[in-house]
Write a structure and sequence with these properties.
409 residues, alpha+beta, 13 helices
Length: 409
């Protein structure tokens, strides 16, 4: 099966990434040793990712400045003491590159704002730190950024400090129920678009309300401002299959209410190919849908490359994306968890997949790309550098694939 390569035929990686070609990283002053440590451990990797994806020099400087001035001061202590939900290692930042058939690569930053107070009696569930981070993003005048829907959903899906005070702090840490809000920043075309991820486990625990009840209540309370007609179909499938759990979470766009997508995320252990098929088609409800079937073929190709045709992977994460007002089928996205597997073998599987769909330039340069990112990759002994690969498919984007990396050198 062959699809057209990304429109710019960008060569991600290879010998283009060098110390000389990375934007200078020594032009910033730091308030303290913690900021310096986060910058030293994560800044060079982000610079290499931007450069390898052929961002213009102007945009590289723009996004590195954004990272230094807005995110670095909000990553908390180094080494980290707040165990973030967004990465396996617990660090509060994550870098990825998205590739799609009909568009240029996009670098992304996953971020859970953290401060010195996060997890302490002064801010036990990181509530105040998140609020201050939102205030800062508001001051940036980002194109399309809107906080009305964001604040509404945070209010519906997260606990307040007063509510959380009813639960023993040690229990919160044990269950990782303290994590409630994180963000994703898409760096594209000189602009930044922001997504928010909401983790309702604590709110559900304190109120006794299920994920579905919290979400339905949040949407219904908006009245006629927005609707997601296919949401009941997702609820019907996930509740029927018993797949809502404490790790279920929600994604929204930080835009106006009527423009924001909903993304329903879930996690499953010991996933088999037959279960993945069931997830992708919502229990067969969209099994005959042409776009669904087309995407499932690409998913199967990558599954076979990763598993050598064995029938199980330890963990899987997936989402269903809903556009506001749309009655179309929910667009599925599946996340192949690679943490703990050989990075070299995972990279070789990615190369084979790129080749199989006709992205030959990307396939030829990918191993060199990861070598440029991580000096220790070439040893063949690492198993945490390539964290996971997500994949979706639509007629608009074609194959839509993102590779997520361990974001600290």
């Amino acid at each position: 099966m062959t699809v057209n390569p990304p429109i710019s035929s960008v060569k991600i990686g290879g010998n283009n990434v060098s110390e000389k070609s990375i934007p200078p990283l020594k032009c910033f002053a730091f308030q303290n040793a913690t900021e310096q440590a986060w910058w030293d451990k994560t800044g060079p990797l982000l610079a290499r990712i931007l450069q390898s994806a052929q961002y213009s020099v102007q945009d590289q400087y723009l996004y590195m400045t954004l990272y230094r001035t807005v995110l670095i001061p909000r990553l908390g202590p180094h080494p980290h003491t707040w165990d973030s939900f967004i990465t396996y290692s617990g660090i509060p930042v994550e870098f990825s590159i998205n590739l799609q058939q009909h568009g240029p690569p996009t670098a992304r930053i996953g971020w859970e704002p953290v401060s010195q107070k996060s997890g302490s009696p002064a801010d036990p569930i990181n509530h105040d730190t998140i609020s201050l981070a939102i205030d800062t993003m508001t001051q940036l005048n980002l194109k399309g950024f809107d906080t009305k829907f964001l604040h509404h959903m945070i209010g519906c899906f997260t606990a307040t400090p007063a509510e959380a005070a009813e639960v023993d702090r040690d229990q919160l840490y044990l269950l990782r129920m303290k994590n409630q809000v994180s963000f994703g920043l898409d760096l594209k075309g000189g602009e930044v678009s922001v997504k928010c991820y909401l983790y309702p486990a604590l709110k559900s625990y304190l109120t006794g309300n299920s994920y579905r009840k919290l979400l339905d209540g949040a949407i219904q309370s908006l009245g006629d401002e927005v609707s997601y007609p296919a949401l009941d179909t997702i609820h019907e499938y996930l509740e029927g299959a018993g797949m809502y759990n404490q790790y279920s979470f929600l994604g929204i766009d930080c835009t106006g209410v009527s423009k924001s997508r909903l993304k329903i995320y879930n996690t499953i252990q010991d996933v088999t190919w037959s279960k993945l098929q069931d997830i992708w088609t919502l229990g067969g409800r969209f099994g005959s849908h042409a776009t669904t079937q087309r995407g499932l073929q690409f998913i199967q190709q990558f599954w076979q490359l990763l598993t050598s045709d064995q029938d199980k992977m330890a963990v899987g994460i997936w989402s269903y994306e809903l556009a506001p007002g749309s009655t179309d089928f929910p667009n599925p996205k599946y996340y192949f968890i690679m943490h703990g597997m050989s990075d070299m073998e995972n990279a070789q599987a990615i190369v084979k997949f790129y080749d199989s769909i006709g992205w030959h330039d990307l396939a030829a340069s990918y191993i060199d790309s990861v070598k440029g990112y991580f000096p220790n990759f070439e040893s063949g002994e690492t198993s945490n550098l390539i964290q996971y690969v997500s994949m979706a498919y639509s007629e608009k984007t074609g194959v839509y694939l993102s590779v997520y990396y361990h974001s600290s050198l």
